[in-house]
Design goal:
It is built from seven helices and eight strands; from the N terminus they run αβββαβαααβαββαβ. With 280 residues, it is of the alpha/beta class. It is globular, with a radius of gyration of 18 Å.
């Protein structure tokens, strides 16, 4: 059997998940779907913040609501074909550009990608400084932070609650941006003659976008109909508290295979697991 790359896996995962085909860098060829971008403001405590949001929706028909959260250092544009296909199945898809997005395909080219990366660096340095104050982690380096985050954190091996709290606090903006995008769907619905059912959205997250979806579900401040987790980061969350239907998808050669399977086995609600052989 020919081994699939992670990119090939994501294409296949989109088909088998019932949500279309993910061809990451190609423009949508589905003329029945519109794609629009908005810069919106939202409240976060006493602050007013801004986030860019991409939306995809069919030109006709009644629609469901889907919220999509992209992976770390990615952007919704990288999932353009996939999101277009999800929309073509009768959905309004809302996808925020999270604070950590870096992509030369974001409309601003390389200069915008570099600008975004420069904004992320201070956040990483701040997180490192916070962790260095935790007993036992005083000498941790950037490389140590990477291992702590990407290896132990993603695999659910961190037991220190102070470290988990620091991670959650630093990535809380993702949750707020995601909720702002879902709230924005209400505004969009008024301009779409009320043809969007916003009462029970479905959430889809890839990689760190899976973490965003999980934490949004756990906040339990809205009626979520279900969620699709594509090779998600689930080790930083208590997925046993999830009570809605979920589908967990990964490839058996993917570095996220074991964490995805572990998350699926621990989840509290009705769930299914899709293991794509030869994908990684």
């Amino acid at each position: 059997m020919k081994e699939m790359t992670r990119r090939d896996f994501l294409k296949t995962a989109g088909i088998l998940g019932g949500t279309g085909l993910l061809a990451m860098t190609l423009p949508s060829c589905n003329l029945s779907v519109k794609r629009e971008f908005y810069d919106i403001e939202y409240s976060c405590g006493n602050e007013r913040k801004e986030v860019k949001v991409g939306v995809w929706y069919p030109r006709e028909g009644n629609l469901g609501l889907v919220g999509f959260s992209h992976g770390y250092f990615a952007s919704p544009i990288l999932y353009n074909k996939y999101l277009s296909d999800v929309a073509s199945q009768g959905n309004l898809v809302v996808a925020p550009f999270h604070k950590d997005y870096v992509s030369i395909l974001n409309g601003g080219g390389i200069s915008r990608a570099i600008e975004n990366f420069r904004q992320i660096v201070p956040d990483i340095q701040n997180m490192l400084a916070q962790i260095q104050k935790v007993p036992g982690y005083e000498g941790i380096s950037i490389e140590g932070l990477r291992n702590l985050f990407f290896e132990q954190g993603f695999a659910g091996e961190i037991q220190n609650q102070n470290i988990l709290g620091i991670f959650r606090d630093n990535f809380q903006p993702r949750i707020e941006e995601f909720k702002a995008g879902l709230d924005f769907a209400e505004y969009l619905n008024s301009g779409l003659s009320g043809r969007v059912d916003t009462s029970s959205p479905v959430l889809i997250g890839h990689s760190f976008g899976g973490y965003t979806c999980i934490e949004t579900i756990l906040e339990n401040n809205r009626n979520i109909g279900g969620a699709v987790m594509m090779s998600p980061v689930s080790g930083l969350s208590d997925v046993s508290q999830i009570g809605i239907p979920t589908r967990w998808m990964t490839g058996n050669l993917d570095t996220f295979f074991e964490p995805t399977k572990t998350g699926y086995e621990a989840v509290g609600g009705e769930s299914s697991f899709l293991d794509i052989k030869g994908a990684g």
